[in-house]
């Protein structure tokens, strides 16, 4: 994971944000310390320290030392199917597993005693793999279909959204967070916080690369690495944060990895969720299979973008072997996807790997989500099918865009898109009256001037017309925060 430090730095390097704010105080969460006494799960506890953002001057510097390894690609790993349900204490300030989370603090190293960053050298194999000589046979795929070409003109652009009163509502993950994920699920550091309505009165929240003990930011450095996690929440009062009712767990106080990854650099280093949605009793999650974190800031290479599904409300997931978009020559679209059901369709917004691409758009009938031949792609004012398996799209939003989040605001009948704009070094939001646009110009919600090394920007589905709630991650903290903005 150490190599990800260089890749994720591109969130601010390309926008010059890494230099902005260096050495200046950074805004900190200011939750109500008395809240835990009245609302279970809302904190922090009176015994916890007030959450503070990490300094841009790191306490630990982890350096990967790559060395070549020739191996055989043995194919996908089986998923971890073990699940353990645990009744958590009703009092969020009670640590349910002190034997797992409250070990003695390590003695300070000499550099730490001298006030210098601790340097960790991490040997890391870089794999050159031969193909698997005995691949597992695939089950029969869906019957191919031939969707028609259909006109899809754009509509006039809306006005730029008016953003005001942007505040940090709560720290959602890690130590001293409103959910105490370090104590309850051994989640010390994580990112993203991708949300969708998993049931009429429930929100699912997916996270990316996660670490437990020996967590040492910046970035997801530490042990007990899991590529992805899933939490669920039912609280509607977002002014106090997002309270997790439970997470998918595979042991006592241990959040489970949902989508396996081989964790082999230059084969598959990790699998990261990019969006989620529910249709009936089935949950869907788009994800990207990352081959390697590139040394060029803000870039990485994917194997493909894919779709997984769950028929037991998110406890176990299946990566569909056919619902994937291969990364041909490293430039294919829909490697990072944001999928949104609306009406008879599921719309899929996508960008290539890295944080530098433009946004393309596809759609598929709701009952054909896992059949890639049923998708139509927006190109030059029309929905067109793929040609010989090749996808061609026109941008609906110009580059650069990263960490897409799109929703349809049914109350206002408006489409909203949030993403990281690396040129502006900021999270931005756009709106449109149709899925294909024309999309409004972008309005900044949060800038690297306020939160250096920021990324993410995933919209909470229960945002209202005026109150826009979204998650934000920062590389220096490597945790997830709930933000609020007023839409004028």
Q: Structural class of the helix and strand makeup?
A: mainly beta
Number of strands: 26
For the biggest sheet, the summary is: 10 strands, antiparallel
Helical proportion, percent range:
under 10%
Poorly predicted residue ranges: 5-42
Q: Averaging pLDDT over every residue, what do you get? A: 90
> For the terminal residues, how far apart are their CA atoms?
41 Å
Task: Tell me the number of helical segments per DSSP (H or I, 4 or more residues long).
Answer: 5
Quickly describe the structure.
With 488 residues, the protein is mainly beta. The protein has helices spanning 4-8, 10-13, 98-101, 110-113, 181-184; strands at residues 60-72, 118-130, 150-151, 163-171, 192-199, 202-207, 229-233, 246-247, 249-251, 254-255, 270-279, 282-293, 300-310, 318-326, 336-342, 345-351, 357-365, 376-379, 382-385, 397-409, 414-421, 426-432, 443-447, 454-459, 467-474, 479-487.
What's the topology here?
Elements: H1 4-8, H2 10-13, E1 60-72, H3 98-101, H4 110-113, E2 118-130, E3 150-151, E4 163-171, H5 181-184, E5 192-199, E6 202-207, E7 229-233, E8 246-247, E9 249-251, E10 254-255, E11 270-279, E12 282-293, E13 300-310, E14 318-326, E15 336-342, E16 345-351, E17 357-365, E18 376-379, E19 382-385, E20 397-409, E21 414-421, E22 426-432, E23 443-447, E24 454-459, E25 467-474, E26 479-487
Parallel strand pairs: 1-2
Antiparallel strand pairs: 3-19, 4-26, 5-6, 6-7, 7-8, 9-10, 11-12, 12-13, 13-14, 15-16, 16-17, 17-18, 17-20, 18-19, 20-21, 21-22, 22-23, 24-25, 25-26
């Amino acid at each position: 994971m150490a190599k990800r430090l260089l890749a994720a730095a591109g969130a601010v390097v390309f926008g010059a944000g890494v230099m902005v704010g260096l050495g200046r105080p950074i805004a900190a969460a200011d939750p109500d310390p008395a809240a835990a006494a009245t609302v279970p799960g809302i904190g922090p506890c009176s015994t916890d320290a007030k959450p503070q953002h990490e300094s841009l001057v790191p306490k630990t510097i982890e350096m990967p030392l790559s060395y070549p390894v020739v191996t055989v690609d043995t194919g996908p790993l089986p998923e971890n199917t073990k699940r353990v349900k645990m009744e958590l204490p009703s009092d969020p300030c009670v640590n349910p597993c002190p034997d797992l989370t409250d070990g003695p603090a390590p003695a300070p190293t000499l550099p730490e005693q001298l006030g210098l960053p601790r340097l960790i050298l991490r040997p890391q194999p870089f794999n050159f793999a031969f193909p698997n000589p005995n691949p597992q046979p695939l089950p029969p795929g869906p019957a191919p279909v031939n969707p028609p070409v259909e006109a899809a003109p754009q509509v006039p652009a809306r006005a730029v959204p008016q953003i005001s009163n942007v505040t940090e509502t709560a720290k959602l993950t890690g130590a001293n967070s409103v959910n105490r994920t370090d104590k309850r699920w051994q989640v010390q550091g994580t990112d993203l916080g991708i949300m969708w309505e998993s049931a009429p009165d429930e929100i699912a929240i997916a996270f990316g690369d996660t670490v437990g003990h020996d967590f040492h930011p910046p970035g997801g450095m530490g042990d007990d690495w899991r590529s992805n996690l899933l939490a669920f929440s039912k609280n509607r009062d977002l002014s106090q944060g997002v309270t997790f009712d439970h997470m998918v767990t595979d042991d006592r106080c241990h959040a489970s990895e949902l989508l396996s990854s081989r964790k082999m650099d230059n084969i598959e280093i990790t699998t990261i969720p990019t969006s989620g949605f529910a249709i009936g009793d089935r949950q869907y999650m788009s994800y990207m299979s990352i081959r390697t974190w590139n040394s060029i800031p803000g870039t990485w290479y994917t194997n493909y973008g894919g779709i997984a599904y769950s028929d037991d409300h998110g406890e176990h997931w299946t990566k569909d072997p056919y619902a994937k978009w291969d990364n041909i020559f490293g430039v294919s679209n829909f490697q990072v996807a944001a999928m949104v059901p609306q009406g008879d369709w599921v719309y899929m917004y996508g960008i290539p790997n890295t944080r530098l691409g433009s946004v393309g758009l596809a759609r598929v009938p709701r009952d054909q989500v896992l059949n890639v031949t049923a998708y139509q792609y927006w190109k030059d004012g029309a929905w067109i099918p793929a040609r010989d398996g090749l996808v061609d799209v026109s941008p609906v939003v110009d580059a650069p865009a990263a960490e897409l989040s799109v929703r349809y605001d049914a109350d206002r009948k408006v489409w909203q898109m949030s993403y990281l704009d690396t040129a502006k070094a900021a999270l931005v939001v756009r709106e449109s009256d149709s899925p294909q646009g024309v999309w409004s110009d972008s309005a900044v919600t949060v800038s690297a001037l306020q939160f250096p090394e920021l990324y993410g920007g995933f919209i909470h589905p229960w945002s209202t017309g005026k109150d826009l709630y979204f998650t934000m991650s920062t590389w220096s903290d490597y945790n997830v925060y709930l933000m609020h903005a007023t839409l004028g």
